[in-house]
């Protein structure tokens, strides 16, 4: 019953386990396509984000205000990760044994897949987001930058989505950090209910927004690229980010934010 991990890598595994259990669709197939955009000489604000506790950004307060709060760093990052790891326990799964490659535990975890829960309705998100503080807590969002290195290395994301709010929300939850910035483009053809759900989720975070223009995306045409250009332009308002990553709602990260930062730092400003 001990699903306790102390490393960020462990966190990724825990997220994986949650995913496998919840839906057989989630085969963690997504590999992250890192795209480009070198930003020369970016002005970096010296951010002081609360790192002593898992920090919930109060509803309705802008990013600059809520991210600007300062607090003494009196616990270590390792303790931080431990606190978060405690929050993402998977009932009935011994994550430690799983990570050690225990055959029986792997078998048990795989069997969870056959009991995958019914997908959440898009409308579910309208209800659950009425209180954003509750929403962030219940869904287990990481509201801390975790490490100084990550805080100093903001990443901008564009996410092209068209269906399945639950899947999109899982992706967002996996990549969400309070110092990054996220632009979500909802296809023009998407059902209204879906659009409302994604908008409600975005409204719960100061650094997540919906692209102002919605394109009718059709494969094999320019419209596939257009949403990313729209997002890039709108992400430009947030000058602090260093790299841009384009995703779709059907992807899932195989790396933690910390690992991404390490990889992108090694790029030293070059483009993949
Ligand atoms: C899956 O569901 C069945 C019936 O509801 C239950 O008996 C079984 O214990 C469940 N398996 C797991 C791994 O939860
Ligand atoms: C949504 O919330 C309302 C009241 O807050 C409640 O009556 C309704 O049953 C909820 N719907 C769902 C699907 O949870
Ligand atoms: C949200 O819920 C929390 C308790 O979980 C409560 O303290 C807070 O006042 C609520 N916020 C709003 C805006 O209702
Ligand atoms: C983060 O950036 C600040 C200011 O640019 C710098 O003083 C600090 O050493 C950096 N920390 C890390 C861990 O890179
Ligand atoms: C991201 O952009 C690159 C370059 O345009 C493209 O090759 C790749 O398919 C895009 N990834 C996604 C997930 O759209
Ligand atoms: C990183 O790039 C800068 C120029 O942009 C160069 O001076 C420096 O040597 C590079 N660092 C590494 C480790 O390649």
TrEMBL record:
Keywords: Glycoprotein, Glycosyltransferase, Membrane, Signal-anchor, Transferase, Transmembrane, Transmembrane helix
Subcellular location: Membrane
Membrane topology qualifier: Single-pass type II membrane protein
Regions crossing the membrane: 25-44
Pfam families xrefs: Branch
Keyword Membrane part of the UniProt annotation: yes
Family designation: Belongs to the glycosyltransferase 14 family.
Listed InterPro entries: Glyco_trans_14 (IPR003406)
Main location: membrane
This protein's pathway: Protein modification; protein glycosylation
This protein's GO CC annotations: membrane
Protein name: Beta-1,3-galactosyl-O-glycosyl-glycoprotein beta-1,6-N-acetylglucosaminyltransferase 3-like
Signal peptide: none
GO molecular function: acetylglucosaminyltransferase activity
